[in-house]
Amino acid sequence: MRKPIEIGRFPYPLGAAVLLVQVALGITIFAGFQEFIPNYLGTGDDWPGYLLGAYGAARFLAETPTGALNDRLERKLGLLIGFSLMAPAVAAMALLEEPWHFLFAAAVLGAATAFLWPATYAITADLYPPQERGRIVGFLNFAQLAGFGIGALAGAFLLPVEPRSIFVLGSGAIVLAFLAALRYVPAYRHERLFALAPRLHSSPWAALRSRHVLTVAVLILLGTTSLGAAIPAIRPYGEQQLRVSFEALTVALIPSIVLGALAYVPAGHAADRRPRWQPLAGGQLLAAAGLLSLGSTDALPAAAAIAVFIFLGNVLSVPAWNAAMMDLAPPDRRGMLVGLAVALSGLGLSVGPVLGGTVVERFGPIAAFRTSAAISVVTALVAVGYGVRLWPPHPAVVVRREAEEA
């Protein structure tokens, strides 16, 4: 007889696997795409945006299908498939010489990552009631950002010593994530890891046609596009506006990364206690205010302080929109809709960097930050306009009403 799952402990091994794989993505996306490609391969400042675009586009195309596939599989198997494909994609980058080859490797990495996040968030939706999902999502997002920050810092400092070793380190972190998931993340849907669930009979299109689902999808796409548009401007902003090296800028961002990571859990609690649209809109407005302020300073300490508010704004939004999509997903289509949400994040991280990279190349980094801020303001306005009149009741309110009626 199978042992019951200890729900209270369940997020921790899953969070450990998320943290390790995000270390690899932090190394690859921040140090590899942003610094290694333009400085060691001699490309222009637009190439980091192209690489992020290839990565995000591949995720967008793959995540809804992999989420639907995950509805038939044991969720743990989805994690293991993702890790198995990510590790060789990152390891191969240590051997590549041409920028175009990195575009292909970035796309493979994005497609591999597509197996990971639908499984991770579907596990949360499967095992926790709606009024607790924001908290668990906040914890997982904390592990996500903390791992990415650790990876970004490790990659930035290792890059001048032995540039290509960053990809070896990233691949090793993914292998450790695979081993952690294999050993400590339980299989709870089926008796065997490779067992298939019965074929689903409900139509996927009914879930996708919901106006609530479509609205949350638009908000996720806009919010991640805003975030993505700012990323290619980071390195040129440090060089042109602040007159500091990439390493010095990375060190200055440590407080923002730490505070942002620590804020994910309380942000998740806020998403559980308030209507989901309120922290989402508030976070986007906070990020927009920070982005608009970056052009007013050429001092590194001031820019680092402003970056704290930008990070906190995005941190406040993410658990809210992820939990909102989980609330709307029917159990038999949970992987598919969660996959759609993550796919739209990937699309935003595809369109955003291409947009931001193009703006940086033609108009400079400050213009890219302003473009990102404008998109954040639009996201907030859509959330407020829809939320005030049409957003579904908060899960905690539904649970309280059901208890009163009983």
Shape: globular
Highest CATH level, the class: Mainly Alpha
Radius of gyration: 20 Å
- Relevant CATH superfamily: MFS general substrate transporter like domains
Estimate nothing, just give the exact number of structural domains: 1
Question: Can you summarize this structure?
Answer:
With 406 residues, this protein is an all-alpha fold. The chain has 17 helices and no strands.
Describe it.
α3 (about 75-90) runs antiparallel to α4 and α6 packs antiparallel against α12. This protein has helices at about 10-40, 45-70, 75-90, 100-115, 115-125, 130-160, 165-185, 205-210, 210-230, 235-240, 245-250, 255-275, 275-295, 300-330, 335-365, 365-390, 395-405. The protein has one domain: MFS general substrate transporter like domains (Growth Hormone, Chain: A, Up-down Bundle). The protein is an all-alpha fold and about 400 residues long. The mean pLDDT is about 85. The chain is globular. The two termini are about 35 Å apart.
